[in-house]
Write a structure and sequence with these properties.
With 485 residues, this protein is α/β, with parallel strands linked by helices. It has a single domain, classed as Alkaline Phosphatase, subunit A. Helix content is 31%, strand content 15%. The chain has an eight-stranded mixed beta sheet, sandwiched between helices. The protein has a four-stranded antiparallel beta sheet with strand order 16-17-18-19, with helices on one face. A three-stranded mixed beta sheet has the order 12-3-15. Strand 16 and strand 17 form a beta hairpin. About 2% of the residues have low confidence. Bound molecules: calcium ion (2 copies). One calcium ion binds next to loops.
């Protein structure tokens, strides 16, 4: 009797001990087992990078070397051409037409349809990752989503007492050489923060890390120290190639939506003020500076013990016009507004690959889950891009979907862009011969079948726009006079 009790107790203790050990193993996945993740965001960067070829003078040696180490998605698009909905969609795996967040407000935590959903770092934290970030990964309030947040470190950065180039308009809308030193720029501080973390997290840390590094340039104000401007002498600046009659085949609705009530300067003002070359120079200088900061982080990673075990994803949240279609900045669902750099570098896959299959920022979340070996989330609306890392030419049945308010959608396939606006007007562009989207061929018979196929991707169910007072809300409202009831 006595012996049996001891045996039972011993057995019970053993079971408890084994359960405890298993729990420990689950909680603290060792860094050797799971890859680290470095998620790098560059705010408002369009395709003006060396590897995407959007501008012949763009200098981005570090983005290009990262592309050379991984897979470049050369046909990648945002879900919305503004920060907040683009980042909210990417971070929750839900399209703007599912969440109702189409514009700069409201915040993603105010959307009933997103309630209870994990963002990317929150999901990784649940699976034993140490999550940390600095700079802009989300559209504000990053500290809510990471275990450790190093701060915005100055955000959009210092501004001179009086504006340099654009005397009127939104306080952030300005460009020129300012301030004096790299060290005064928030992006430099964000890079230094990341470098310090990469240096100090030990190789044998009991948790893998998920690190967000969010750069603010080339977002306005397009300021950077003078030495970055000197790389692009103003008298040698190549302006974007534009067609003066480009708008003649657009609807009044499309023009109103993408121009009225906007905070960016009017193209006619930029030209008449003699500022076009200077603004293009400022954007190029801002990109070169952000690229330099990226390079500092990549160098630190290369010198660290994490270099072989860290997945790197680099993205921008949307595109940017600099005069194309006679307009400036974001907030369009044309190629200039939606095309973004997207690079996935993971040493388990071939280096230097390029895929022209349509990819979306909403694909980043499922891609990272698969690469890190975390459970698939079937409720997510994006698709893992891992098949394209395995084979950049793989059959890919998906398209990229962008929207700017309910009823305004763009469908980008490998070779075409179809646009449908709320007033019923449509556009269709053939990228095989019209990469600048000058020639709207919506009425050309030869394309009828292809257009019909693209149309099937316009979502039938579209959430109402969650209320707010953003530029997007105002432009959407202003354009509504062209919608017949
Ligand atoms: Ca942005
Ligand atoms: Ca046109």
């Amino acid at each position: 009797m006595h012996n049996i009790s001891i045996a039972r107790i011993t057995f019970a203790v053993l079971v408890l001990w084994t359960t405890f050990l298993t729990a420990c193993n689950y909680q603290s996945v060792s860094a050797a087992d799971k890859p680290n993740v470095l998620l790098i965001s560059i705010d408002d960067l369009n395709d003006w990078t060396g590897c995407l070829g959007g501008h012949p003078q763009a200098k981005t040696p570090n983005i290009d070397r990262l592309a050379g180490r991984g897979t470049l998605f050369s046909n990648a698009h945002c879900q919305s051409p503004v920060c907040n909905p683009s980042r909210a969609s990417m971070q929750t795996g839900r399209y703007p037409h599912t969440s109702g967040i189409y514009f700069l407000s409201p915040d993603l935590q105010k959307a009933p349809k997103l309630e209870g959903l994990d963002t990317i770092p929150e999901r990784f934290a649940k699976h034993g990752y140490q999550t940390l970030a600095a700079g802009k990964i989300f559209h504000g309030g990053d500290q809510r989503f990471f275990q450790e947040y190093g701060g915005s470190l100055g955000g959009f950065g210092p501004r001179p007492k009086t504006k340099i180039s654009q005397p009127h308009g939104h306080p952030l809308w300005d460009w020129g050489a300012f301030p004096e030193k790299d060290e005064m720029m928030p992006d430099y501080k964000v890079a230094q923060w990341a470098i310090e973390k990469i240096r100090t997290i030990p190789d044998n840390a009991d948790k893998p890390f998920f690190m967000g590094v969010g750069f603010y340039r080339p977002h306005v104000p397009m300021f950077a120290p003078k030495k970055w401007f000197d790389l692009f002498p103003q008298d040698q600046i190549k302006l974007p190639v534009i067609n003066e009659n480009d708008r003649s085949d657009l609807s009044n609705y499309a023009i109103a939506l993408t121009n009225e009530k906007h905070v960016s300067p009017e193209h006619s003002w930029v030209v008449s003020a003699g500022q076009w070359e200077h603004a293009v120079q400022s954007y190029l200088a801002s990109i070169a500076f952000a690229d330099y900061c990226l390079g500092l982080v990549l160098d630190a990673l290369d010198k660290s013990p994490h270099q072989d075990n860290t997945i790197i994803v680099l993205f921008s949240d949307h595109g940017f016009h600099l005069g194309e279609k006679q307009r400036w900045a974001k907030r369009t669902i044309w190629e200039d507004g939606t095309r973004v750099p997207l690079i996935v570098a993971d040493k388990r896959y071939a280096a230097g690959q390029i895929t022209t299959k349509p990819a979306e920022l909403i694909d980043v979340f499922p891609t990272l889950l698969e690469l890190a070996g975390l459970p698939k989330d079937n409720a997510q609306e994006g698709n893992s891009l891992v098949p394209l890392l395995e084979n950049p030419l793989a059959d890919w049945p998906y398209i990229a979907l962008s929207s700017f308010g309910k009823g305004n959608f763009a469908v980008r396939s490998e070779h075409f862009r179809y646009i449908q606006y709320r007033d019923g007007s449509e556009e269709f562009y053939d990228h095989r011969k019209d990469s600048r989207e000058w020639d709207n061929v919506i009425n050309k018979r030869a394309y009828a079948k292809t257009i019909k196929r693209h149309k099937t991707h316009i979502p039938i169910k579209q959430e109402e726009i969650l209320p707010g007072n953003s530029t997007g809300h105002k432009a959407y409202e202003a354009a509504s006079r062209f919608v017949e009831n």
